[in-house]
Amino acid sequence: MATPLLALPPTANAGISIGIGVSVGIPPPALPVYAQPIIPGPGYIWTPGYWAWGGPDGYYWVPGTWVLPPQIGLLWTPGWWGWSDGFYRWHGGYWGTHVGFYGGVNYGYGYFGTGYGGGYWRGRDFYYNRAVNNVNITNVRNVYVNKTVINNVNVNRVSYNGGRGGISVQPTAAQREYANQRRFQPTSVQTRQREVAMQNPAQRFNSNRGHPAVFATQHAGNFQGPHTVRAPAAANSRMVAAPERANAMPAQRERMMTAPNRSNRGMVEAPRERAQPQAQSFREERAVPNRASEYARPEPARERGAYNRPQPRNRNAERRQPPARGERGEKRPPRSSGGRG
User: Fold this and answer.
1) 100-136: per-residue pLDDT in tens?
2) Helix then strand then coil, % of the chain, to nearest 5
3) Does residue 213 lie in a domain region?
4) How many CB atoms lie within 10 A of CB 58?
5) Which of 49, 69, 338, 314 is nearest to 186 (CA)?
6) What phi and psi values does residue 174 have, to the nearest 5 degrees?
7) Whole-prediction pTM value?
8) How many domains does the chain have?
């Protein structure tokens, strides 16, 4: 049973009603566990996968993907389902200078129920937390490691707020304030990602029973790319086999939702509302793979193009690693007037 609503009064139990557009009588399925594809290049921000409503076709899975923000300095607040007055209502995601309330849903990879622990803006550059992001430090040099965001284990896969079995989290005062600030709608490639998913019968819960054909993509709208995270051959498998981690044990793959390169951690709630540098002490992380045990404080950003790659260590490396290209239809974002993280 589903009732499309073009405009709804702000009656959601969680207390924030942004972009509500559909009301459904049945709860969304549990979130699947999947690996994160490697980042395409500097400046991309991870947008987690979610269950969307397709009318007569029921729920379908929109894969997580890397996206360029519409402006420098903006962060993504994921959409979420919230129970109210006997229905589950969708609150659409948006871009803004802060990460707002998203129902306490643990989407993984930095979105652990509140705030964002995957990175922050410093000037025109975005710094990535390698503890929760699949980043190639040869291509992306603005990195640090902060494991404090994954200290507590929480593998809750509930995908909605309120109602029977839902997450009982209310927005903070700061999150209520963020809801009144300027917001930017999803980009065209994000819309394309949803449209492609909706048209694919293998993404529908009625067909896949919670195991969609595609869990995540490296580029929005491209479900055939080399780093696409697909369902394993065994349709009844609980976990997701990514190309980089196809041999991981099920329990390890479940923890990849938090740390793609460090499989012994679980999903937790991030401690901050804003994506800013953590106050903890960090040690320098050198540009050498597999140094996950070190903490790193990112170097001050130099004023340069929004997504220009920092200079590699030698000219040969530069010739071997051409700059990452944006996906079709994506443009480099202009600088946000309020976007300093």
Assistant:
1) 999 999 999 999 999 999 999 999 999 999 999 999 9
2) 15, 20, 65
3) yes
4) 17
5) 69
6) -65, -40
7) 0.69
8) 1
